[in-house]
Amino acid sequence: MSENTYFTYYTIEKGDNIYEISRKYNINPKLLGAINGIKDNEYIYPGQELMIPKSGYSYYITGEGDTLEGVKDAFKTNMDGILEYNKTIYLLPEQILVYKNNR
What we know:
By secondary structure, the chain is α+β, with helices and mostly antiparallel strands. The chain has two domains: 2-53, Membrane-bound Lytic Murein Transglycosylase D, Chain A (Roll); 57-100, Membrane-bound Lytic Murein Transglycosylase D, Chain A, CATH 3.10.350.10. It is 28% helix and 21% strand. It has a three-stranded antiparallel sheet, with no helix packed on it. Strands 4-5 form a two-stranded antiparallel sheet. The radius of gyration is 14 Å and the shape is elongated.
């Protein structure tokens, strides 16, 4: 398992499933799947690496038509708060944006 500022990386082992992994890391399975581009009916495979969101941060996955104003409202912050944690923002569908909780 490796780490960066916002995610821990977990390598899937034989017998793992998204629900057990999400329970182990106390994260919603739909969010875990969305962050990793895994649809509800897709299989995961041994050796595949998952990004596990770290606690203390909020995560937003952009959708079609999202705006910075909408993201700002979702995080309940100002534009500087968003830019502090996200160096590049494209607002294309499925971009992961991060914000630190309890500033």
